Amino acid sequence: MSAADEEEVNPYELLGVTMESTEQDIRTAYRRVSLKVHPDRDVDAGATARKFHELNQAYELLLDPLRRMALDAKVRLKEARKARFASYDTKRKGLVEELEARERAFKKVRVEKQQEERARWMENERIMEEGRRLKEEREKELRRREEEALRAERERAGEDEPPELGDLDTTIRLKYQLSSHPMLTTPASLVALLSPFGPVDEASMKLILKPSPPKKPKRGIALVPFKQISGAFAAVCASGRAESGLADVEVGWAEDKEPELIGWLKRKGQLGADGGVSATKDAQRKQDADQPPAPAGANPLSTSTAPPDKESGTSFSSFPSTFPSFDAPATPSTKLAETGLDYESLTLMRMRQAERARLEREIREGEAAEGN
C-alpha cells in the first residue's frame, strides 16, 4: 500500500472503537483515552499536546453524522483496496508499488515547483516594491530640491517687495490704570490722546473697563485701530513716554508681535531697531509739505508721517519718506519678458538641465569603469 495511506490517521483507531460503535461508546472511549494523553499528565508536553489535538479532531469527526458517513465509505474503500492488493502476486504488487512511488515523486516535484515559483514571484514583487519605493523617494527628494530652489529664488526676487498688510497690523492695544488717567473712560478721550500720532478709526475702537460697572473701574484696556500703520508704529514707539502724554500707559501691538511690514522696513535699513527713521528730518518735512491730505479709504500703507506734538515740540517716529508703492505692478526683467518665462519656469528649467547633466555624467563614468 502507499505510504500516504499508511500515514493517514484513522479516527476509529485513535479512540479504540469500531465502525459499529454507537455515540455513547465513542464518548466513553474519548474520556478514557483523553486521560492518558492529556498534556498535564505527561512530561513531553509537545508530543502529548499533538496527540491530544488529534484525539479531539477524531472525536468531533465521529460525532458528526455526515462526516462519519464519508469516513466510513473511505475506510471501506481502503480495506477493499488492501484486500485486493493482498490477492496480487509478487510481480503485480511490485508494479503497483512502483506506480504509487512514481505518483508520489511526481506530486512532490509538482509541489516543490509550485513553491519555487511562488518564492520567485514573491521575490519579484519585493524587488518591484523596493524599486517603486526608491523611485518615489527620489522623486520626492527632487521635488523638495526644486521647491527649495524655487523658494530661494522667490525670496531673492521678493526682497524688494514689501509684505502684505495684515488685518490687525494697524491696531494697537493700550493698558493703563484709571488712577493715573481718570479721563480715559470713553472712546472720544482715547481719540484725543492718540490723534497726534495719526488718524484713528473711532468706530472700530474697543474699550473695556475692569471691573465692570456697577463696580468702580480701576483699569482700562483698549484696542485702537489706526487708519495708517505709520500712526500705529508711532504710538507703539512712544509707549510710556510722558512727553507724548503716554506716561504709565502700556502701548503694544494687538497681536503681541511686530507686523511683518515693520520688520521688512528695518531689514531694508529704512527704520532703526529702536524705531528711528533713516530719512532725515528735512526730507520728512518736505514730504509732509508736498503730500496732500489722505482721502477717506486711502491705502493704510501710505507714506504719510505722524504730525509732531505742537506743545512739546517732539516729533514722533514715522515711516521713511521713500516708502515703496503698493499700487505699482511688479515689472519683470527685460530678459525674462523677451523669452516669455517667469522666475518659476526659469528655475525649474535650470534644475532639470542640471539634473540631466548629472545623470549623463554618471552614465559616462559608469561606462568608463566597466570598460576598464
TrEMBL record:
Residue numbers spanned by region Disordered: 273-341
GO cellular component: cytoplasm; spliceosomal complex
Coiled-coil ranges (or none): 96-156
Membrane-spanning parts: none
Source superkingdom: Eukaryota
Pfam families: DnaJ
Keywords recorded for this protein, A-Z: Chaperone, Coiled coil, Cytoplasm, Nucleus
Main location: cytoplasm
Domain J residues, every copy: 10-75
Subcellular localization(s) per the UniProt record: Cytoplasm; Nucleus
Biological processes annotated in GO: spliceosomal complex disassembly
Segments of skewed composition (Low complexity): 314-326
InterPro entries (alphabetical): DnaJ_domain, J_dom_sf, Nucleotide-bd_a/b_plait_sf, Pre-mRNA-splicing_ERAD
PANTHER family in the cross-refs: DNAJ HOMOLOG SUBFAMILY C MEMBER 17
Protein name: J domain-containing protein
Protein's organism: Rhodofomes roseus
